Known about the structure:
This protein is 72% helix and 0% strand. By secondary structure, the chain is an all-alpha fold.
Amino acid sequence: MNDQERYDNGMQVRRGVLGDAHVDRTLTRRNDFNEDFQDFITRFAWGDIWTRPGLTRHMRSMITLSLLIALNRGDEFRMHVRAAFNNGVTREEMKELFMHAALYAGLPAANQAIHDAEKVFAEMEAAEPGSTTRVPDVGDDKTA
């Protein structure tokens, strides 16, 4: 696979997971300073890792949320809470993930994740009343 194919595959997955609106906003903020980084994210994170066989997008979302809880990466975590719904992750699964993370990543990290997730849920419900399973847009997070 060449770099252009990797980029194209990565962009397709990135849009599927994060949503067109988020990716479009990210692309409109491209400039000489961040363009190489955006290409890197698209080709390697989304085009190499998220497209690998062996794990479903659902499982990748669960793993990503777990790691972001452990690393205390709030902005990225909130973005991936939204994205996880696009991959079929439910609130109940997130709740269990947070309980499990409390054992291995620590109570403060899991507690913060629960509060952050509740904020995301509230934003999602305000944007699309009655929807708790699919996110129309990832929002204005600054990452990925």
